[in-house]
Specification:
single chain; about 475 residues; mainly alpha; 14 helices
């Protein structure tokens, strides 16, 4: 379109070209680097526990760590996905993000610590350390999601390496001081996650102060907006960690804590594969969120390619893990690993890789309600298969293979759900939307506006929740991004 000058005598001077964005490959490499260091941090904590705890204590640690991961998934899904999709530049939404971050990072760990301490499962000191570790883990996960939403993937490497150094240092000091049992890994985990949280907040950049402080009325509206979007995302994010935690409890009930510890040691050895899959899926979620102008079927093809790459990567890393299991068992767990269990967990990682990109795409296209229903259904199917395997006396190593069945079926259904979704409607067409001009294709938070069962908000709240985010800053000005 050609513009004219005020007098209509000729073309006006065109605006200077916008600096190109960093190439997607740089972001992909950054996401891989961030996931690699996160895998290293998680693996280090698990190795400390596996080597210093008896198999029965390690079985208890596996259940506790599963609960910690569930709490982190709640905070990441509720707050992390919301700050990725909703308008962080809005003072209302920002206040809602702060409020819900405080709730999910403080309340569940505190309540769980009190309940576990009063029940006698843990000593009082262990219960306090568990609550601190769970809270720091959840808060650090939210801070990581903020850096991911800002596409600052390389800063995640600094965050994770800082946490890794703190974890190993504290573990060494506690071990040298004669600390044994669960307080050692719990204390090391709490320290490592706390240091990583501080570093992540420092690297997130300053918050813009242009928006005025919200009143209670508008702030309350922001709380409702974040809850409306984040509740389904949190429920969806917590399904798989809850499935694994319940599976651990089932193995404890059927064969005891020692067998649970052995099965968990094999899972720890394959955990980097699962973290790789989860990290790349989070990266895809962030990139899908800024591609609202792209047709859904085009993004489905992009998700298909991502699934193929994830499958190849998971198969390759899983095969290496199986080959190294006989040798690396002593290094990781201080005892030989069950090669069959390692292979079974590798197969489970491959099945997870087949479904997560489609769930990420559905979440930014308004289909999170249907995806949640599919995830819950396939999780119940997987649990039923696990109970059947344990009930007939099969070895615990067969449990991950039982979990694969529901995951694969769920992946096929989620892809069908995504294909049934329409293309996103620009926010300017919604009632109450600000801005009458055409929207830029780089704006990141348009949600599906179809009149279906997944619509969660009334017109006024939905318009605010899906308000167009201000233009993303160029890579030359990264500090213009906002904190939640």
């Amino acid at each position: 379109m050609t513009a004219t000058t005020h007098g209509g005598r000729g073309p006006a001077r065109t605006a200077p070209p916008v600096a190109p964005r960093p190439r997607r490959r740089v972001h992909v490499l950054g996401a891989l680097g961030g996931q690699g260091t996160q895998a290293l941090l998680g693996l280090a904590g698990q190795i400390v526990a596996a080597r210093l705890l008896a198999p029965s204590d390690f079985g208890v640690w596996a259940v506790l760590y599963g609960v910690v991961v569930v709490f982190a998934a709640l905070a990441s899904g509720f707050v992390g996905d919301s700050l990725t999709v909703l308008d962080r530049g809005s003072a209302d939404v920002r206040r809602g993000l702060w409020a819900w971050a405080a709730v999910w990072c403080l309340a569940p760990p505190a309540v769980a610590g009190v309940v576990i301490g009063l029940s006698g499962v843990l000593e009082p000191v262990e219960a306090v350390l568990f609550a601190l570790a769970a809270g720091a883990f959840a808060a650090e996960e939210v801070a990581r999601r903020l850096l991911m939403a800002q596409l600052r993937f390389w800063r995640l490497v600094v965050v994770d390496l800082s946490g890794l150094g703190a974890l190993l240092a504290v573990a060494g000091v506690l071990a040298a001081g004669g600390t044994t049992g669960l307080p050692l890994p719990l204390g090391a985990l709490a320290a490592g996650q706390a240091v990583a949280l501080v570093v992540a907040l420092l690297l997130a950049g300053p918050r813009r102060s242009a928006a005025p402080a919200p009143s209670w009325a508008t702030g309350h509206s922001g709380v409702r907006i974040v809850a409306a979007y984040g509740s389904l995302r949190a429920a969806q994010a917590v399904v798989r960690p809850s499935l694994l935690t319940v599976t651990r409890l089932l193995v404890v009930l059927f064969v005891g804590t020692a067998a649970t510890g052995d099965l968990e040691a094999a899972r720890v050895f394959v955990a980097p594969v699962l973290l790789l899959v989860g990290g790349l899926s989070t990266y895809l979620f962030a990139t899908f969120a800024v591609a609202h102008a792209v047709p859904t079927r085009t993004l489905v093809r992009r998700a298909d390619r991502a699934v193929l790459r994830l499958l190849v990567g998971a198969l390759a890393v899983g095969a290496v893990a199986v080959l190294l299991a006989p040798v690396a068992g002593e290094l990781v767990a201080g005892r030989p690993l069950d090669t069959v269990a390692v292979a079974a967990w590798a197969a489970y990682a491959v099945s997870v890789a087949a479904v997560t990109p489609y769930g990420s795409l559905a979440a930014v296209r308004g289909g999170q309600g249907r995806v949640l229903a599919v995830r819950v259904a396939d999780s119940f199917f997987s649990l039923a298969a696990a109970v059947a395997v344990l009930g007939v006396g099969a070895p615990p190593a067969a449990v991950p293979l039982a979990l694969c069945t529901g995951s694969v079926l769920g992946g096929l259904l989620v892809r069908r759900v995504v294909l049934s979704l329409g293309d996103a409607v620009p926010a300017r067409d919604r009632p109450g939307s600000s801005g009458a001009g055409p929207a830029s294709s780089t704006r990141a938070d348009d949600l599906d506006d179809d009149q279906d069962d997944d619509r969660l908000l009334d017109d006024r709240s939905f318009a605010l929740a899906s308000r167009l985010r201000p233009e993303h800053p160029s890579s030359e000005h990264p500090t213009r991004e906002t904190r939640p």
